[in-house]
C-alpha cells in the first residue's frame, strides 16, 4: 500500500508540489506586507514559518482519500481481510513522505530568509519532523469525515485548523526559543508527544470515520 501510494504520487507530482510552492510563497510574501527590517523579520519569523507549514499541509490533505473514494477502491479496502486501520497507516506514511518531507527539506531557506540565527535551521527542521506527523494524522481524520462532500475543502479547513493550534504554538515557540538561545526541550517534547499520540490513535478513528462515510 505504501509503495502503491508513492507510485501514484510520482505520477501526479504537480499536486504534491503545490504545498511546497504555497509554503514558500506565504513565507516570502508575508514580509512585504509587514516590514523587511531585520528585527521585525526575526520577531515574526517563527510564527510565519509554522503558519505557512500548517496551511500548506491543509492544502494537500483533501486528496488523501479522494481518488480512492471516487473509483470505489476505498470500499474494497473496507471489505478486505486486512484491518482498514493498517491501510490508513500506510497511506498516512506515504502522504507524509510526499508532502511533509519536502517542507522539511526546504525549511532552512525560510529560516535564513527571516534572518534567524543559523543555529535555528536544525531546530526548524526538527520541529517540522516532530510536528508534521500530528498534522497529517489529524488532518486525515477531517478528510475521512468530509471525503463524500464535493469541494469539501472549506469544511475540512473549519474542522482541522482549530485542532492544529497546539502544534502551531509549540512549533513556533521552539524556533523562537532557539533564536534567543533558550532550551527547546519543552516545546519539542510536546510536539513529539502530540505526534506519537496522533499516530497511535488516529488510524483507528480514521478507519471508523471512513466506514461511517461509506455507509
TrEMBL record:
GO terms for biological process: cytochrome c biosynthetic process; cytochrome complex assembly. Signal peptide: none annotated. Keywords: Cell inner membrane, Cell membrane, Cytochrome c-type biogenesis, Membrane, Transmembrane, Transmembrane helix, Transport. It is a multi-pass membrane protein. It is found in: Cell inner membrane. Its main location: membrane. Required for the export of heme to the periplasm for the biogenesis of c-type cytochromes. This is Heme exporter protein B.
Amino acid at each position: 500500500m505504501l509503495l502503491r501510494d508513492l507510485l501514484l504520487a510520482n505520477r501526479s507530482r504537480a499536486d504534491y508540489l503545490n504545498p511546497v510552492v504555497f509554503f514558500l510563497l506565504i513565507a516570502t510574501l508575508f514580509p512585504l506586507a509587514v516590514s523587511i527590517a531585520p528585527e521585525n523579520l526575526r520577531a515574526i519569523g517563527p510564527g510565519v514559518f509554522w503558519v505557512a507549514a500548517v496551511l500548506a499541509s491543509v492544502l494537500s490533505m483533501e486528496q488523501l482519500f479522494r481518488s480512492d473514494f471516487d473509483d470505489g477502491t476505498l470500499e474494497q479496502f473496507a471489505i478486505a481481510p486486512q484491518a482498514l486501520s493498517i491501510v490508513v497507516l500506510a497511506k498516512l506514511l506515504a502522504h507524509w513522505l510526499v508532502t511533509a518531507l519536502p517542507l522539511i527539506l526546504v525549511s532552512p531557506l525560510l529560516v535564513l530568509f527571516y534572518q534567524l540565527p543559523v543555529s535555528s535551521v536544525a531546530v526548524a527542521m526538527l520541529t517540522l519532523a516532530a510536528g508534521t506527523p500530528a498534522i497529517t494524522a489529524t488532518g486525515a481524520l477531517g478528510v475521512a469525515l468530509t471525503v463524500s462532500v464535493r469541494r469539501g475543502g472549506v469544511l475540512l479547513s473549519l474542522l482541522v485548523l482549530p485542532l492544529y493550534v497546539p502544534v502551531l504554538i509549540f512549533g513556533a515557540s521552539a524556533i523562537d526559543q532557539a533564536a534567543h538561545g533558550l532550551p527547546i526541550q519543552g516545546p519539542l517534547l510536546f510536539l513529539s508527544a502530540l505526534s506519537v499520540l496522533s499516530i497511535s490513535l488516529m488510524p483507528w478513528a480514521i478507519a471508523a470515520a471512513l466506514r461511517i462515510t461509506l455507509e
